[in-house]
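$ run holo --ligand "5-O-phosphono-beta-D-ribofuranosylamine" --emit tokens
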Amino acid sequence: MMEAAAGRGRGAIVILISGRGSNMLALLDARPALDVAAVISNEPQAAGLGAARERGVPTRIVDHRAHADRPRFDAALAREIDGFGPGLIVLAGFMRILTDEFVARYGGRLVNIHPSLLPAFPGLHTHRRALLAGVRIHGCTVHFVTPELDRGPIIAQAAVAVAPDDTEETLAARVLAQEHKLYPQVVRWVAEGRVTLAPDGSVTVRRKAAATGSLASPPLDEV
Ligand code: GRF
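-- output --
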């Protein structure tokens, strides 16, 4: 079994962003505080960078446009990450596809949040696609990153009911509110070494309460 997030400073975290950074903010504002060493963006204009700086968190920019190809960008990104010696790398709205080499380098120490209940709706425009598909339950997933996009081992999910009058925007907002609760909790579990990724890709989360309960949408009649 591979202990997730093992390495120098197991709890130290580097967050990668590309834009708004609301999940990053949820991580920076989590209490008790998570040990966030730095925030790195591939987009110089990412709004999240300012918010991180305001909180005194070191920031770096690795602009993908300044690199000739994906391997060179990933190598530059890895150099910046490794400068902080993190145990865990957290993708929070990071919109670049990573090379297999990059993913392998951080195997078991690289997590992502995706705005759907994977394996449903990998890729982009998840809320629009969920509405078109007519699903009654939608949500978000935190998973280990593997080379295949949005297909890595699932650590945790949070679900929301889809309302009959939902638009892409209202559904996105309801899912995002769940993301902001789910991601800090899961990152804490991983940073504390409570998440184990087995070689067969199965994930174990050591926590006190057993998984119980169910969610039905529309709600079932009381009997
Ligand atoms: C979130 O919906 C996240 O699930 C997805 O990209 C979005 C990023 O939003 N990977 P933000 O930058 O965290 O506000």
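-- notes --
The chain has one domain: 3-193.
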